[in-house]
Design the sequence.
């Protein structure tokens, strides 16, 4: 009540926890629909990431993924990037072509396979990667600010377990309704 000593000031609403369209969309399906919720989160992160890489590095999200994989993995073929990124080879090829035009990547002969070339970051590409990576780290810190180190590790381990199961299902057999192990 106003004027009462010891009364706590009214807390400002926390925009992260405030009910709104996200909570409504999230509650359409319950926790048994985890894939739906993961897809929703993935789409949200893609939207944010698309804007961030466009604003900071003037590249598309697909181009950023290629650039980041080459920066982290070192010189690789487009096929190797496609496998590592779990994306279609055509998407990688379009990204490579655009990154070459921008001067961020170049191709060199692949000593292991004469039919393919290796993708190599140029100094300009390495600069874009470093600049963008600083922004991405800051974004990840903000995104996971409500989780402690143990929770982050647990989340990573749980997501990996789900990913392994999904990978096994995709490789072993087509999904059968009601099939469980």
Sequence:
């Amino acid at each position: 009540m106003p004027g009462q000593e010891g009364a706590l000031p009214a807390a400002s609403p926390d925009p992260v926890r405030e009910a709104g369209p996200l909570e409504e969309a999230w509650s359409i399906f319950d926790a048994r629909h985890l894939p739906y919720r993961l897809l929703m989160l993935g789409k949200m992160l893609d939207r944010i990431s698309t804007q961030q890489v466009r604003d900071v590095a003037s590249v598309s999200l697909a181009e950023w993924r290629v650039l980041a994989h080459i920066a982290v993995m070192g010189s690789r073929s487009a096929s190797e990037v496609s496998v590592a990124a779990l994306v279609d080879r055509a998407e990688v090829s379009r990204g490579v072509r655009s990154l070459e035009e921008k001067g961020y990547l170049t191709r060199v002969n692949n000593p292991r396979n004469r039919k393919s070339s290796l993708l190599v970051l140029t100094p300009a590409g390495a600069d874009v990667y470093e600049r963008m990576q600083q922004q991405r780290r800051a974004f990840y810190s903000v995104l996971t600010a409500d989780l402690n180190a143990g929770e982050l590790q647990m989340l990573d381990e749980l997501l990996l377990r789900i990913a392994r199961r999904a990978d096994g299902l995709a490789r072993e057999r087509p999904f059968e309704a009601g099939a469980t192990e």
